[in-house]
Amino acid sequence: MSEPLLDVRHVDKSFGGLRAIADVSLSVHQGEIVALIGPNGAGKTTLFATVAGFLKPDAGAIGFFGHDILGSTPDRICALGLVRTFQIVQPFAGLTVRQNIAVGAHLRHAGRREALELADSVGRRLGMAALLDRPAIGLTVAARKRLELARALATEPRLLLLDEVMAGLNPTEIDEIVAMIRAIRDEGVTVLLIEHVMQAVMSLAERIYVLNNGALIAEGTPAAIAANSAVVDAYLGHGAAGKLQAKQVRHA
Amino acid sequence: MMPSLRLSGQRALWAMAGVAIIGVVLPLLLRSDFWLNFAIMVLFFTVLGQAWNILGGYGGQFSFGHAAFFGTGAYVTAVLQVKFGINPWLGFVLAGIGGGLVGAAIGFLSFRYGLRGSYFALVTLAFAEVLRILANAAAFTGGGVGTLIPLKQTAANFQFVDKTGFYFVIFALMLIGLLLAYWLENSRFGARLMAIRENEDAARALGVNAFAIKLGAISLSGALAGLAGAFYAQYFLYLDPRLAYGPGISVEALLVPIIGGMGTIFGPLLGATVLHVVGEIARKVMGDAVGLNLALYGMVLVAMVLFLPNGIAGLARRQRLKPKEERL
Questions:
Q1: What's the CATH class of domain A6-90+157-220?
Q2: Minimal CA separation from A68 to chain B, in Å
Q3: To the nearest whole angstrom, how far is the Cα of A152 from the nearest Cα of chain B?
Q4: Which of A113, A204, A247, B134 lies 20 to 30 A from A162 at CA?
Q5: Using a CB-CB distance cutoff of 8 angstroms, which residues of chain B are in contact with residue A75?
């Protein structure tokens, strides 16, 4: 297999006595959609923040597109083509939707007009045509999530880190955003996503990593992960997998 | 493609053209020295307020020490002139550079250590106070006695017999300030600066080098304040540490854009005009009672901040937004 686009090796990050990420290694290859799942507090967002340069890990190595990005700053990492979204959406509240997206577009377009035109087309592609001139402060949750995605996409990245872009959306909105993510990948952007909406994870992801208490406990295809007893235990409590299996045997 | 945005940009340019025409005609109408002086002071505070607006209004970095830049500009012109005989027009340019350098130095020290909000405000205030104390102690500034610039009224010496000369200098500076603000609203630098104001982490995630942008903004802001300081020195021909570096100037610098509308092109012009009209009326109304005019002035300020949180320029904007959108 060719060299991975993102290569995280043995990364460790502690906050005081809490080991938020413990010896995590994962890789994402060009053109993939990979999901990172795990219970709340597993360290998923911390891992994203570390990869994107917002946190400095205590140990390990992070390679992206052939560069060592460990200890680099968020803006330099973004310029290399790795962009993250925020789980708690961070719109530029006082700016319009178009101006919000244009901040991302400015990464590779110095001219105001070009950036605004790119913002326009990205916004339209994500179904925000009617909202372009609205201030971001008045948007609904679904629209704010889309704005996060649009701004990130406007930086024309190689790799998108999506942090729970479906949380709080209704089933129709989830279907829409799943289709958008697939379309984004088909245009050549690799995707690594954190998500709790399992129906979306199962249909989108080609591979899944499972994080629990800061450590990776499983990796594999959606089908393999769904059948993995360690994963079921992590989500439903210790021993849950065994009980479920026993129940199924009895029913059979 | 972008109807609303380009229109507002064009509207701003038309408004600027209007201001330019009024500004050129105004001195012909202002027959008395009193009103000409009034217009000069309004324009002077507009420039000072615009300097603050670049950093505070567009960048969200609230400085409480713009006197540091202003005073440096004023002293650069005055000291170079008095001690070294350097022409004040050259001093004027050097004052801008000096103000910018002090801005860059303060910005480097405070932004590097991630100072934001009230911490940044306090540090800028502290720097201005340190400079005031240094100016008070140093010999070449004239110390506490101050510096007198010798009277020699020729245009080549940046002193005008007719106040109209001063008027056009400060008016040109005010136009430059307007153009700077217009540039901020229509450039990548400005877009990034406003993104930092709204949410610094989100801006960094989108590839914005927040440190470099903030450093650029404080240098630009310092340069404009330095130019205002040089003008002040030439207009009044006297400086002392309290006038140059005292908190009075810092407060005026932030009051003007806050009253007029932060992060808007015309906010400082509106703010300076209203503040000076109110100040003048307060003086007229309270006439004989010393100090009461300031009490009235203060009351009007409180009322304005209470009822116009977005400044005077925010009035127009508020009507455009539907109430529902504004509340969320």
A1: alpha beta
A2: 17
A3: 7
A4: A113
A5: 204, 207-210
Contact A112, A120 (CB under 8 A): no
The number of beta carbons lying within 10 Å of the beta carbon of residue A177 is: 23
Q: What is the dihedral of CA B113, B119, B125, B130, to 10 degrees?
A: -50
Which is nearest to B193 in space by CA: B217, B173, B169? B217
CA gap A193, B244 in Å, rounded: 55
Residue B54 carries which DSSP code?
Answer: I
**Mutation site for A-interface testing, chosen from B184, B198, B215 by largest number of A Cβ within 10 Å:** B198
Q: Which domains, ranges and CATH numbers included, belong to chain B?
A: 12-260 (1.10.3470)
Both structure tokens of B243: 């006038």
B205 to A138: CB separation less than 8 angstroms, yes or no: no
Predicted local distance difference test score (pLDDT) of residue B144 = 84
Which residues have CB under 8 Å from B301's CB, separation 6+? B255, B259
Bridge partner residues of A210 (DSSP): A37, A218
- Taking contacts as CB-CB distances below 8 angstroms, the residues of chain B near A140 are none
CB contact (8 A) between residue B198 and residue A99: no
Specify which residues A206 forms β-bridges with: none
ipTM score: 0.91
| Contacting residues of B for A93, CB less than 8 Å apart | 198-199
Which pair of tokens denotes residue A48? 């994203």
Domain positions in chain A are: 6-90+157-220
Partner-chain contact B188 A112, CB within 8 Å: yes
Percent of chain A topping pLDDT 70? 99
Q: Which residue out of B5, B7, B182, B206 would a mutagenesis test of the A interface target, given it has the greatest number of A Cβ atoms within 10 Å? A: B206
Tell me the per-residue pLDDT of A14-25, one tens digit each, with 9 for 90 and over. 999 999 999 999
Residue B38 or B292, more confident: B38
What string of DSSP letters covers B257-270? Answer: HHHH-TT-SSHHHH
Chain A residues lying within 8 Å of B195, measured CB to CB: 92, 95, 103
A116 contacts chain B (CB < 8 A): yes
Closest by CA position to B155, among listed B213, B201, B89, B98: B89
Query: Which SS3 state, helix, strand or coil, does residue A108 take?
Result: coil
Q: At what angle do helices A171-186 and A141-153 cross, to 10 degrees?
A: 10
Report the alpha-carbon distance of residue A25 to residue A36 in Å, rounded. 12
